Structures are given as C-alpha cells and as structure tokens.
Fold:
Amino acid sequence: MTWLFALVVVVALGATAVVATGRGGSMTEVHDDRPDALVPADRPLTAADLRRVRFSTALRGYRAAEVDALLERLADELEQRAAAEEPASGSPTAPGTPEAPPAAP
Structure:
C-alpha cells in the first residue's frame, strides 16, 4: 500500500513538472474585460474626448470624483483655449497662413 501511495505522489509530481514546463499544452489567452479608456491618437485631444473618458476602478484604485473633476476642468480649459484661438472675424484660417490685409477705402 505504501508503494502505491509513493507511486501516485511521484506521478502527480511528474505531471506537475510537465505542465509547469509548458509541455502539456498552452493555456487559453487571457482577455482583459475592462473597457479601454479610448482617446484619439491621430489628432489633438478635444474637450469632448476628455468628457467621454471613463476609467475602470480596482481594489486600490482612485477617487473617481477627483479624477472626474480634473477631467472636467481640463475639458473646460481646452474649450476656452479653442475659443480664444478662433479668429475674431469668424473666418477660419489655416495655422501659419497670413491673413488677408484689410481692403483700402
């Protein structure tokens, strides 16, 4: 009986060693189930981009109210900068393009 128990232990240790070295096949790929905080990478951020961002929480996460307040402040500042950079005449010009001189009376 002791020999049988010893044989079972040796077989179990051997099977564990085979699996640990990766010879028993691979495990399935892990997929993250948390939503991504998607922001555009191909253009500058806008206020609307910041307002759409939502972060996932974790056990040792963050204070959501503080992060939301910061994102709202950043969005407001981006809107103010965008409004200040718009030409006063209302006709948009490309950056670096000189504006047309005023017509002579």
About this structure: The chain has three helices and no strands.
